[in-house]
Write a structure and sequence with these properties.
Elements (H helix, E strand, L loop, with lengths): L1 H16 L4 E3 L10 H6 L9 E3 L10 H6 L5 E3 L20 E3 L20 E3 L10 H5 L6 E3 L7 H4 L9 E3 L10
Parallel strand pairs: 1-2, 2-3, 3-4, 4-5, 5-6, 6-7
Length: 179
């Protein structure tokens, strides 16, 4: 436990001291985003454009996290226990890529559909069965949506060009067993 805390402190200090544009807290065994980090990075939050919280044990992301890091262009939350995103995610007006692979989403996180700059959404290995095809089709900036290894229904497979201007990645359809 102490080693993990020290690693987080080191990574946060590196970001602050170097005025880095990224904060990498991947693989730190975090169960939530430590409140103390908000104060520690206060002087550089506007300059942080990329955050990785991949491969932790996060069950949620708070609205405070989203509003504090409002300049994010990339957010990596892969490999956690997330099942929803706060509505405030829509305020990330610069967000271009979000990785939510290997989480616990059962539904497509609909607030993402209103993020105007979003180009890449990775939702591989979740539990998503349905996707809001109408909302996805209206996402002007979207270039790639990865839904591999999800139990998506047949309506998602109908999202083909030229109906949608983005690349849709799905797992191959399971062959129907012959009776």
């Amino acid at each position: 436990m102490g080693e993990a805390v020290a690693r987080v402190a080191r990574k946060v200090n590196d970001t602050v001291e170097n005025k880095a544009d990224s904060l990498d807290l991947a693989n730190c065994k975090l169960m939530n985003f430590p409140v103390g980090i908000y104060k520690a990075v206060r002087s550089v939050t506007e300059g942080i454009h990329r955050i990785s919280l991949a491969n932790n044990e996060l069950k949620s992301i708070t609205s405070r996290f989203v509003t504090t890091f409002s300049q994010l262009t990339e957010l990596n939350l892969a490999g956690n226990y997330l099942h929803r995103l706060p509505e405030e995610i829509t305020s990330l007006l610069h967000l271009r890529a979000i990785d939510l692979s290997r989480n616990r989403f059962r539904r497509f996180p609909e607030p993402l559909a209103t993020v105007p700059t979003l180009e890449t959404i990775d939702l591989e290995e979740n539990e998503i069965a349905e996707v809001p095809t109408d909302k996805l089709a209206s996402m002007a900036s979207l270039r790639s949506l990865n839904l591999r290894a999800n139990p998506v229904g047949p309506e998602a497979r109908l999202l083909v060009r030229p109906l949608v201007p983005f690349e849709l990645l799905l797992s191959p359809e399971e062959p129907v067993p012959k009776a």
